[in-house]
Amino acid sequence: MKKITILIFTFIIVSATFGQKYVTKNGHIKFYSETPVETIEAHNRQVNSALDIATGDFVFKVLIKSFEFEKALMQEHFNENYLESDKFPDATFTGKITNLNSIDFAKDGKYEAEVEGFLKIHGETKKVNEKGTFEVSVGKIFGKAVFMVHIADYKVKIPNTVINNIAEDVEVTVDIGLEPVKK
User: Fold this and answer.
1) Neighbour-count burial for 21-48, b at 16+ CB within 10 Å, e otherwise
2) Which of 33, 115, 128, 141 has the lowest tally of Cβ within 10 angstroms?
3) What angle do CA 118, 122, 127 make, to 5 degrees?
4) What is the pLDDT of residues 45-81, one digit of tens each?
5) Residue 181 DSSP label
6) How much is the average pLDDT of 87-113?
């Protein structure tokens, strides 16, 4: 948790003279995998994120061990065998809103967003381009996105004995509420 706080704090300090910053420490990320054999779903409500509305810079950091599963055995296998969370404790995204000019963060409303950056999972970093929405409401910013992650891209190895239980592409849902940083 200390590393997460340092990342967010550094982001705010480095860009303190530019624009207004919005942050959260309790965003929500869900992943979902469905096969004919098994459905796997996990939730993480300890997602840290920061957004600079002047530059469009956007960062996320999530502790892998904070994903919660319905079945304890799934959670254990996820952390020990697949994501190796002791070796790779977090996942990060560092990027930018590429259509920043079409989003009016000063006006309440819902805006389509395009985000480009680098997603790091399991020690592997890949460039990603995704779409989502930002909704501005009463001084807060709510971000939502749903996208697919191809697990082989991040060198997550699935044993042959359970290969049919886990989808090759996992649906990831991001839902965050960002509040302005108090000066």
Assistant:
1) bbbbeebbbbbebeeeeeebbbebebbb
2) 128
3) 20
4) 999 999 999 999 999 999 999 999 999 999 999 999 9
5) P
6) 97
Q: What are phi and psi of 103, to 5 degrees?
A: -115, 125
What DSSP designation does 103 have? -
Phi, psi of 48 (to 5 degrees): -100, 135
Q: Phi/psi of residue 73, each to 5°?
A: -65, -40
Number of domains in the chain: 1
Structure tokens belonging to residue 11: 């982001």
Instruction: Give the model confidence (pLDDT) of 152-168 as tens digits.
Output: 999 998 888 888 888 99
Cα–Cα distance measured from residue 30 to residue 44, given in angstroms and rounded to the nearest whole number: 6
Closest to 12 (Cα-Cα) out of 37, 48, 38, 36: 48
Tokens of residue 109, six digits: 């409303």
The candidate with the shortest Cα–Cα distance to 21, out of 4, 8, 32, is 8
Measure the CA dihedral 74/153/134/40, to 10°: -20
What CATH number should be reported for the domain holding residue 88?
2.40.128.110
Residue-range definition of the domain harbouring residue 95 = 2-180
